[in-house]
Write the structure tokens for this entry.
Amino acid sequence: MDDGCVTVRTPVHLAELPQATTINDPLIAAFEREKDAPDVRRSHFFAGRYENIYIPLQRLPELLAVSEFVLAAASRILQLDRLHHGFWFNEMQPGHRTTLHSHEEDDELLSAVYYLKCSENSGRLILHDEDARIMVTPRPGLLVLFAPDLPHEVEENTGQDTRLSIAFNFGPPNSAT
């Protein structure tokens, strides 16, 4: 008998940063302070916006607590003590979306997204796993970790506010992920 369930081949891990409110607000302010600096790199210009905003780590001491939380979760999942990781911000204004893509360009072992700011209807993360679609509703402090080859996209932000998240890729310690 078919019960309508679809088997998911790739695990998706969720975690909550307990003190997200006290950590996110200063990090959001740091993003706003630094995002227009001349040495900030932007990539993936689609539909009138740059999807990826790369702020140098040394300019973001406010990122430390989130980075440690995300790195600890990735290390547990991959069962590796040392990982190299890169990060970038995604700022999504109302009316914007992120198209279907994956993160398997280099030697990534795991990808993640951490939500800083998202209001109702700011767009769900959709992970495509063969016949299954995994829908994740964002909320501040939520961390989602998944395989880098898992195609994913973000629905249109139909809310009234900007959605802000940080994406991470993890690779072996000697890689340049």
